[in-house]
Amino acid sequence: MATDANLLLFVLDNDLRQSEYQSLQALVEIGKRSLIILNKTDLYTEADKNIILAKLKDRVKPFLDGNDVISIAANPQSIRLETGEIIQPKPDIMPLIRRIAIILRSEGEELIADNILLQSQRLGEEARLLIDSQRKREAEKIVERFQWIGAGVIAVTPLPVIDLIATAAVNTQMVIEIGKIYGCELNADRGRELALSLAKTLGSLGVVKGVIQLVSTALQLNLATLVVGRGIQAVSAAYLTRIAGKSFIEYFRHDQDWGDGGMTEVVQRQFQLTRRDEFVKQFVQDAFAKIIEPLNFNSTELEEEELPIEADIKPLLKRYLDDWDEDNTVDRPDW
Questions:
Q1: Residue 13 half-sphere exposure, CB side, CA atoms within 13 Å?
Q2: How far apart (Å, rounded) are the C-alpha atoms in residues 46 and 327?
Q3: Measuring CA to CA, which residue among 9, 7, 311, 309 is closest to residue 161?
Q4: Could you say which of 184, 234, 305, 306 would form a disulfide bridge with 155 (CB–CB 3.0 to 4.6 Å)?
Q5: Using one digit for the tens of pLDDT, what is the confidence trace for 5-30?
Q6: In angstroms, rounded to a whole number, what is the distance separating the alpha carbons of residues 127 and 130?
Q7: What is the b/e burial string over 250-266, where b = at least 16 CB atoms within 10 angstroms of the residue's CB?
């Protein structure tokens, strides 16, 4: 309501509180012409009133003219005379009326023009926020879809190394699709570059291990059992994909800029946002409902016979792990 007004009357009955000061300062800074009105001055002696007025003028001096601090008594208290007669003083608001008249004569058209400009800017900002909100919802749908895809892949073909789970958390196609939502057309090479870079950040920050611990605690199961290991890996993969996807949303929302703290700060912030107990519990429940339970694992059979990795995958896996350990994650066409 305040931002819709052409002229603001900021009414007080004493000195400015800190919260009032901040509100007034914020309104003046966005261009709202304001007057400070000290009301109920009939409750003060003349000396006390002058002290309060002087203090108000001094506090708002950085952003408001002293002439715009005015004292009035809009509804003075009644006075009982010694004779018992009760007198109701008239409102004392002429100082305010005179100041408003001066402002309207000298600044009237400018006030209206400034307010129209501010309203136009607000409409533009509201439109931008609406578009951003719609884009974010669409991007989050993509992240949710890919997090369950990643979990399903790990559940069906469990990988025996935690480092590889970190890279599985970031899918090149997910990056490309999120980019499209924000009007950024990425080719496969650029998408892969971003995906691998974030995967490496997830691993180096200890986010992978942190996620494994969170998921393991939430499941409250024994890591030694193969079916449990597969479940933990699948849920962890989905969890890591979510962190990666949310991080990329922030990257594209800010015009492909990670900010002053870089990718590291964005990833850490997203990890912290998902560490709340209630979120972890709900996420694990959703993961089991969508991924683990539909596969209907037979834990007895799985414990007796470990599922082998296909022979043609093993050389690629070994070469990848060697590169990862040596900090030499290069782009290989046969990945």
A1: 7
A2: 77
A3: 309
A4: 234
A5: 788 899 998 888 888 888 888 888 87
A6: 5
A7: bbbbeeeeeeeeebeeb
Order of strands, edge to edge, in the sheet holding 7-12? 7-12, 33-38, 69-71
| DSSP annotation string for 119-136 | HHHHHHHHHHHHHHHHHH
327: its two tokens: 């900090």
The answer to whether the beta carbons of residues 237 and 244 sit under 8 Å apart is no
- 3-class SS of residue 225: coil
Q: How confident is the model at residue 323 (pLDDT cuts 50, 70, 90)?
A: low
In contact, 154 and 237? CB cutoff 8 Å:
yes
Q: Are 74 and 39 in contact (CB under 8 A)?
A: yes
The residues, any chain, with a CB within 8 Å of residue 81's CB and separated by 6 or more, are: 87
Which two structure tokens, joined as six digits, stand for 235?
């849920």
In this predicted model, what pLDDT tens digit does every residue of 25-67 receive, in sequence order? Answer: 888 887 788 899 999 999 999 999 999 999 999 999 988 889 9
Section 255-271 average pLDDT: 90
How remote is the C-alpha of 106 from its chain's centroid? 43
Tell me the pLDDT tens digit for each residue of 84-115: 888 889 999 999 988 888 888 888 888 877 77
Instruction: Note if the pTM is more than 0.90.
Output: no
| Rg over CA atoms, the chain | 32
Q: Please give the structure tokens belonging to residue 53.
A: 């007025």
How many other CB atoms are there within 10 angstroms of residue 303's CB atom?
13
For tokens 């909100």, the residue is: 133
- Torsion angle, CA of 19/20/25/28, rounded to 10 degrees? 140
> For helices 188-204 and 172-181, what crossing angle results, to 10°?
110
DSSP three-state, residue 71: strand
**Token match 């180096």: residue?**
204
